[in-house]
Specification:
This protein is low in regular secondary structure. It has two helices and no strands.
Amino acid sequence: MPAILEKTSILIILVLLATLSPFVYAESFDHFSTGFPLTGAHDGIDCESCHTRGVFKGTPTRCASCHSGTSRLGGERKPPNHMPTSNTCEDCHITSNWKQITRFEHGDVTGACSFCHNGQTAVGKSPDHVTSSSKCDDCHTTNSFGGARFDHSGVTGACFSCHNGTTAIGKSANHIQSNNSCGDCHTTNSWNGAVFDHTNVSGNCVSCHNGSTATGKNATHIQTNTLCEDCHRSTGWVPVTRVAHADVIGTCFSCHNGTTATGKHPTHIGNSNTCEDCHNTTNWNSAVFDHTNITGNCASCHNGSSATGKNATHIQTNTLCEDCHR
């Protein structure tokens, strides 16, 4: 009996040693040699947490192999509200503390920026952000959130909501007087080279058409005051719609000289160039005649052609009308 008991005891001891030996010498084992060093929280757990039933070969080394819902090891997994990413946990997390991330690797994120940059999970659009869609990456990059490359196609507000001189460049100090509907003239492709819409200009013509901001009166323009709109129209600078003679500050002949405007025709009676002595600005043909400016004699006009001459029953005389008539 003693011999049988002795043999049984030895057998039990051998079985126990065979079972426990891998874990007995685990403390002296260099785990770094496996390619998976035990760091952080991994260094304080029992070996059997990963090496179940004493199986060492084929133990996974990637975080997601253990920290997932399908793993047989049952490691802590990504929570349901975790941002959509790849399963390369170590790109952001460290082994000492799962919730403490060392850095953020945007390259592993599979969801939209606004999923995190919503003002709660991560910094979102500031209160003074331009009115736009939530597609952050239309303008921003993961390298630098500031210094955005702007894409106007995502903007839902009016131009002036940003181009007000504070959020973005607005109208310059010498900008023409207009309303704040920038899109009426400017495009998002190029701020310069505007297609001009005069209907939104609130100032008068000369506030722009002064020869500096925009084309003004040329050197040969008739002498007038600065009310361009009295004669010109905004849809076409030439030809003029009408001539407002009340705005002309020169004499009639300064324009009505046969070059700038219609002048005296070849058969006009001989007189000075003071047109306004006879003509008025409302009707060129209905002249009120003033003989004081006539340089020829009566018969030069009163010849029955240019003006009434001697009628058929007139007494026979020479042509000096002024000898008898006044």
